[in-house]
Each structure stands twice: as C-alpha cells, then as structure tokens.
Amino acid sequence: MASTITLKKLGTRIREKRKSRGWTQEALAELAEIDRSYIGGVERGERNLTFSVLCQICSALNCDVAELTKGIPGGNP
Amino acid sequence: MASTITLKKLGTRIREKRKSRGWTQEALAELAEIDRSYIGGVERGERNLTFSVLCQICSALNCDVAELTKGIPGGNP
C-alpha cells in the first residue's frame, strides 16, 4: 500500500498545476467549490480525496484526471 | 457537477479493464483487497471511491490511474 506516497505525488501535481496558473489556494478553492484548508491538505498529500472532489479540482484547473495522474500509482515500486 | 456521470464513466472503464483480463469481480476484489460488493458499486458508478481505493484497483489491474481516466471529467460538457 503506497497510498501516502501516491497522495503526495498527486498533491504535488495539483500544486504545480495551480501555480502554473498563477493562482492562490484561495482562488482554486473558490473555483472548485472546496474549502481552502482542504485544498491545502490535498496538496500536502494529507487528504485521501474522493474521485468527485478530484474531478472538481480538475474542472477548476481545466485539465483531465489523466493529466494529473500519469504514472500513478506507478507499478510496484 | 457531473459527478454521477463521471463516476459511471470510471466504473464502466474499470469493468471493461477487469473483463479484458478475464477476471470476476471476486478476483479483482481479492487482488485489490476490497470487498466484492464495493467493487460492484464502483463499477455501477454508485460509489464515490477515494483516490487510495482507486490506486488499489489500478494496482490490481496493473494500469495507472491516467489510463482509466482519459477524458474524465471532460472539460465542460
């Protein structure tokens, strides 16, 4: 079970994508209709988010889930 | 919020991938260490699964999350 590692990877990619848009966590949170502190937890890999929430974040970032998750979970490291 | 549609899409892809392996739900459930009835709910799009569970399913199916989620959520339909 590499869930902590995969959640951290996912969170890092969300943060990178958000920053590439020049957005604050507040801006992403508002667009995705999610609490700002929850976005922070997701970006740090501390939240085991549901698929629906992941889709909301992707919609806000205007990307698909596949773009954020390439290589995750990453076979058997 | 197209979460029902996106969960159904994801569930359908998981089912297709499982069947392409020639596996029963029981076989996938055992490999993914998830309850069989939960797998059934996921395949029907009735379960808003967490990212960790999605990763467990992908690991069992030997694919990455990106492969299962291409085009999801799919911009603004």
UniProtKB/TrEMBL annotation, chains A, B:
SUPFAM superfamilies per the UniProt record, alphabetical: lambda repressor-like DNA-binding domains
Pfam families with a match to the protein in the record: HTH_3
Keyword Transcription: yes
Domain HTH cro/C1-type: 14-68
Top-level taxon of origin: Bacteria
Transcription recorded as keyword: yes
The entry's keywords: DNA-binding, Transcription, Transcription regulation
Name of the molecule in the record: Transcriptional regulator
